[in-house]
Design a protein that fits this description.
Layout lengths: L1 E7 L6 H12 L4 E7 L6 H7 L3 E6 L13 E2 L1 H6 L4 E4 L5 E4 L2 H9 L9 E5 L3 H12 L3 E6 L6 E3 L5 H6 L2 E4 L25 E4 L8 H8 L3 E3 L2 H16 L2
Parallel strand pairs: 1-2, 1-3, 4-6, 7-8, 7-10, 8-9, 10-11, 11-12
Antiparallel strand pairs: 3-5, 5-6
Helix pairs in contact: 4-5, 4-8
Length: 244
């Protein structure tokens, strides 16, 4: 029986295991899906050696970038993005890294875009933010990173003036702030500057409506959570694992 799985840290909440286990049952697929909870990425080779039936893996926080040295090859898109969330285990045991986050995000976002959505703020600078940046650029939207500490390619939350928010009508939260059980937390966005022109996409899916989403919605903004993105990226990963 083929085996698939997820590598990450503290992943008992995992979307992926539930999604794929239900998919395998519903579609009568002879496969299993397992969580591999790693405290350090150096534990990864043991996962591969101890599970010879592994055919594919998903990768989540905090290893989307740290996984690179353990891979044999990289898909060009994953290499350009600089983050991997999907690994295909070849017949010869070769590990190829892919990124399906960008696809899931872009496809989930597209139906909700309006002509005035030209510029975006990406909250956070982790692995998921890189896929979001790539996706936004493919959609013709100019992204700008927002970080707790200003950097060469990022502004700080203190820089989020009324003028900046008026100019950037797409906002994407790629930080974990607001995830269950710490549902009262949210990034330091001055929500009083949001209005009906804004589209807020929070990559979090648990809870279905985060504190940030609720505050944005109260100001008239359109809000989306990460559920559809996760489903789309998971199906793209399944497609990659099964292609010859």
């Amino acid at each position: 029986m083929r085996k698939f799985g997820l590598i990450g840290r503290d992943i008992s909440y995992s979307f992926s295991r539930k999604y794929f286990s239900e998919k395998f049952s519903r579609e009568n697929i002879a496969a299993t899906y397992e969580n591999f909870d790693l405290q350090e990425i150096t534990e990864f080779p043991r996962v591969i050696s101890a599970n010879p039936q592994l055919k594919g893996l998903n990768v989540t926080i905090p290893y989307k970038e740290a996984i690179f040295p353990f891979l044999d090859t990289l898909d060009p898109v994953a290499e350009e993005i600089g983050a991997v969330n999907t690994i295909k285990v070849g017949e010869n045991g070769k590990l190829t890294g892919y990124n399906t986050d960008y696809y899931g995000f872009a496809e989930a976002l597209k139906p909700h875009l309006k002509p005035h959505h030209k510029k975006a703020l990406i909250l956070g600078t982790g692995g998921a933010s890189k896929a979001v940046k790539y996706a936004l650029e493919t959609l013709g939207i100019t992204p700008k990173f927002v970080s707790r500490t200003p950097a060469k390619n990022a502004i700080s939350y203190k820089d989020l003036s009324e003028e900046v928010l008026a100019d950037h009508t797409v906002i994407v939260n790629t930080t974990p702030l607001g995830t269950f059980p710490r549902t009262t937390e949210f990034p330091a966005v001055p929500v009083e500057y949001l209005d009906a022109r804004h589209l807020l996409f929070d990559l979090i899916y648990n809870p279905a409506k985060t504190a940030l989403m609720q505050k944005a919605e109260d100001r008239g903004a359109r809000v989306l959570n990460g559920q559809k993105m996760l489903e789309l990226q998971a199906e793209k990963a399944w497609e990659i694992w099964n292609k010859s």
